[in-house]
Amino acid sequence: MQPSEKLLLYNKAWVQDKLELDNKYFDALSADQNPDFLWIGCSDSRVPANEITGTDVGEMFVHRNIANMVIADDLNILSVVQYAVEVLKVRHVIVCGHYECGGVKAAMANKKLGLIDQWLDHIRVVQAKYQHELDAITDDHARFDRLVELNVQEQIMNLAATDSVRRMWASHQMPSLHGWVLDLRSGLLKEVVTLNPPGSKNENPFPPAP
Ligand code: CO
Fold it and tell me: Which of the listed residues 19, 30, 126, 174 has the most CB atoms within 10 Å of its CB?
């Protein structure tokens, strides 16, 4: 059997499982979606948004790209954010990075890689911004881990600067923005930063005090 055939076979079994629990499952699923969360994560195969958060089908709107970037002129992510925030009205947006991120590692290595360099340059901008802090970390792996965290923090700031988030903050005092990092060595998510809408009761200073 081809590996791809296995996936189709699994799909049939999944449908059976769902129908056995609820024979109207797909009627409800096809009618509408009302997710509370937008997930912006890395494309890395080891960071499956639903699986690591225990969220079910329909609970999370998902966008993934290399190194979970929010880039101001990327029409793809801006459209996802606008739709999720303004139309679906998600209450929480999560930017989730992960240690051992190949995108961050490639950006740090500073080798010429072709087309993808245009994407990785946005990570190199983060690296340059925090060069002083990063240079002070003598352990290579600890410096790599820290850039992963700083990158998530920067993407949260980029998200906060989008028209969609600003509009919804002004009119609805939502969504909250959460920056997380998945530690692949333990499987645990680490909270790096939370940014609540200005004026909301949970508003907190940003960037966080060290
Ligand atoms: Co990654």
Answer: 126
Please identify which of the residues 22, 46, 141, 167 carries the catalytic annotation.
46
Q: Residue 3 is encoded by which pair of tokens?
A: 């590996």
Domain 32-195, what architecture?
A: 3-Layer(aba) Sandwich (3.40)
For strand 92-98 and strand 176-182, is the pairing parallel, antiparallel, or unpaired?
parallel
pLDDT of residue 204: 61
Q: Which of 22, 27, 74, 98 is catalytic?
A: 98
